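Students often ask what a holo structure prediction actually looks like on paper. The answer is less mysterious than it sounds. You provide the chain, you provide the ligand, and the output is a string of discrete structure tokens encoding the 3D arrangement of the protein together with magnesium ion.
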Amino acid sequence: MLGLRKKDAGLLLLVTVLTVMAPVLLNPFPVDSAMAQFNAGYPDLMQRFVIFGIFAIGFNILFGLTGYLSFGHAAFLGVGSYATIWMMKLLTLNILPGIFMAIVFAALFAVMVGYISLRRSGIYFSILTLAFAQMSYALAYSVLTPITGGETGLQIKPTDTPLLANLEPGEIGRASLFGLEMSQSSIIRMGGWEFTLNVGYYVCAMAMILAFYMAIRIFRSPFGMMLRAVKSNQNRMYYTGLNARPYTLAAFVISGMYAGLAGGLMVAMDTQVGPERMFWTASGEVVLMTILGGAGTLIGPVLGAGMIKYMENIVSKINDQILHTWFAFLPDGLEDAVVAMIYPFVGKGWHLTLGLMFMAVVIFLPGGLLEGGDRIRNAFRRKRTGKEDTAKQRTPAE
Amino acid sequence: MGILEVKDVNKRFGGLQALGDVNLSVKENTVHAIIGPNGAGKSTLLNCLVGKLMPDTGSVMFAGQSVLGRKPYEINQMGISRVFQTPEIFGDLTVMENMMIPLLAKRDGSFRMHAYESVEDEKDLRGEAETMLTEVKLLDKQDMLGSSMSRGDKRRLEMAMCLIQRPKLLLLDEPTAGMARADTNNTIDLLKEIKEKRDITMCIIEHDMHVVFSLADRITVLAQGTPLVEDTPENIKGHPKVKEAYLGEAA
Ligand SMILES: Nc1ncnc2c1ncn2[C@@H]1O[C@H](COP(=O)(O)OP(=O)(O)O)[C@@H](O)[C@H]1O
Ligand SMILES: [Mg+2]
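The corresponding structure tokens follow.
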């Protein structure tokens, strides 16, 4: 199906079903229940899940396959965002041309950064990409203010009159896709439950499914195999008649385009951008997502992105008051003690939880959360059949 | 004129003259062995042929074209494949993938971004790889990761990766070093078979005289970076200079 092997087609189908059903799956708790704050099925957050999913899928094509660790991918995210917002300010409020230009500009910038950075490998490559990204951030922040809006960034203002939009004087343009506004939602109420189906989310979801499909095709193609060969043994590659350099550059540009797409979608969902989008912590975040989920696997990076965004948005909202209401059934002294113990790991302390989780994964599950899943599955299988698992011969990229 | 012509090649490493006025002519479809004590410059000479090292002076011609100044992948695309002294394979890839890569490199050149043209296309390539893997007796290990194989298997895989490209010239740097006797004999048989079945020229560096004398059509003895003699195996065996420089200890 679609040029995919059975197993990959199954994976794509699973991802499609999960993303389409996300507004329901992520809202498992009734609105008035105490657990409702763990509901992640609101448009804003779901959009972030899939947009960062795209970002991580693309990053993984570079890092997971070739092993080149870029520390500057947020620069492409930013370039994509700026390109999109300018298209929306000047040309049209339809998001497609903007997103298209986001990919184009990110690609051009990636060719330049990649061409220079890929002259080195290992830590020197990482540092070069980091330098480029920080340079872009600093420029966007200061010298390039006429283009980037400097510190305050860019947003769509009442004075913006895109060429192809007929706005009332003073009306603020809203992002749309052929008349369908990104912010439109329909809310479905069922009993105590509430599910929000948002246009913007489904646009992003479609983009992610497409991005995921492309990634599968790349992983399974001879080109993808060559990228893994780069990671495995460049020396052998050269003596086998292959030039590793254009392969790494192609991977770099492709992953830059994924980042550009993610940046464009960010603006399409929320029509503003600031230079902090290119800050090095943003570059670091996608590295964390990819490693946490499982570098070099297909679905891992999406999982990692979801995990981190969930913690950032949900775990971070648990404050001490909420903790106290949870443990109110305990005797007072004990309640305080328990809350005091948990408190550092939630709310503003969510970074601590993330950090510990990341360390645990790197130390115990170098293949990421996905490896954890595999191990659990294998353990069950072993128990059932009572034999050692022989699948160890080969670790297929799932 | 041989398929490979090395003329007056010199190579210094600092104060060390690793190669001094090396002249070598390898005839097409022959097996040419280069022997010599450790540190004689055998690997250095090989490195000068594949673009890893640039000789200080001299020329290296392959099939009428100079290889000097070309990148290793360009030289491979000209038809020279190389087996390393320590096996160089793709450890993170399966044996089958290890075979597909040289096959694709041969077919599609040094860089191409593409998917398989069709299911049949992939099948054909696999079929070709399977045939080669059968020849080196690795077919049953095709799904194993390169890094999890034994050293002997890695060597055989590397040889298969080179052979599947159907090179005009195959360079082998001590292909049996560290192998058990049985493995060595298998390798000799494999190389003999290849040599009979195909039009291929081989240049083989070897320590093991048994291997050299069972395979080589001509032998060059290298000592301290300079060729001492070049002759047939029969004549080399009895050559006084060779005995003195190399076989001395053994004889
Ligand atoms: N890259 C290098 N830098 C410095 N010296 C080298 C280098 N490669 C080889 N040599 C020296 O050149 C001489 C020949 O080495 P080599 O060609 O490896 O010998 P062989 O393969 O015949 O045992 C040795 O003395 C070795 O130490
Ligand atoms: Mg040597």
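The longest strand of chain B covers residues 16-26.
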